[in-house]
Specification:
220 residues, alpha/beta, Rossmann fold, 3-stranded antiparallel beta sheet, 30% strand
Length: 220
């Protein structure tokens, strides 16, 4: 499918899949969305802890990079696992402007390393941050009671409805520790009901710019 780099509402870039009219991040602001959904309403709940994060849809690496930048502010030690079935191409990564837009030029090497290092192998970015990228379908996740936080950032239900059904959320529920948290930009009623059906306690929260609501689910 045809893909192109576009500029979103906050000046940061993302990848658009033209045939689907779908983007890797919100067209209203890629960086704004990442901070609001995953940092403000997810990561910030775990200050001063050692935590394991699972990202569903590693994609451009934006969420992982922002988490890396924010970790010291929250005094966090993080083991980060990013799952991606279809890795983004190197030439697309180099066309993204996240490092510049985040004023993080001194971490350019870290952003590059996140993408150039081997898959299926944990590697240390700093003494308090490790990253492992896993190339596989979300349906193949089998972890149990491992993660404190899940960033659920799959393509939307409009184009990939199978990623937003009970079977996937059951895997997410199993992968989380007790009281673990899943955050996602989505807010559809069908998604909320699928989460609740597998045992999650779900709350609606104000959404990022351009979106009225988002969901946060907690493992009871």
């Amino acid at each position: 499918m045809k893909r192109k780099i576009i500029v979103t509402g906050d000046g940061s870039t993302t990848i658009q899949i033209e045939d689907w009219d779908e983007q890797y991040h919100s067209k209203h602001g890629a960086i704004q969305e990442a901070y609001h959904v995953f940092i403000k309403n997810g990561l910030s709940l775990f200050a001063n802890q050692k935590i394991n994060i699972l990202e569903i849809g590693f994609g451009t690496g934006l969420n992982a990079f922002i988490t890396f930048l924010e970790a010291p502010k929250y005094n966090l030690e993080i083991n980060y696992t990013g799952v991606e079935a279809y890795p983004v191409k190197a030439e697309e990564i180099t066309a993204l402007n996240y490092v510049k837009e985040l004023n993080a030029e001194h971490f350019q090497d870290i952003f590059n390393y996140m993408h150039t290092n081997d898959w299926e192998k944990a590697f240390t970015l700093t003494p308090n941050f490790t990253l492992e990228k896993q190339e596989k379908l979300f349906q193949d996740i089998q972890d149990s009671n491992v993660f404190d936080v899940i960033y659920f950032d799959a393509f939307g239900a409009r184009v990939q409805p199978e990623l937003w059904e009970e079977a996937i959320f059951k895997k997410m529920y199993n992968a989380l520790k007790e009281k673990g948290v899943l955050v996602t930009y989505a807010a559809k009623g069908s998604v909320r009901r699928a989460m609740q059906a597998v045992g999650f306690r779900v709350e609606k929260l104000p959404g990022p710019p351009g979106k009225r609501e988002m969901l946060r689910a907690v493992k009871n």
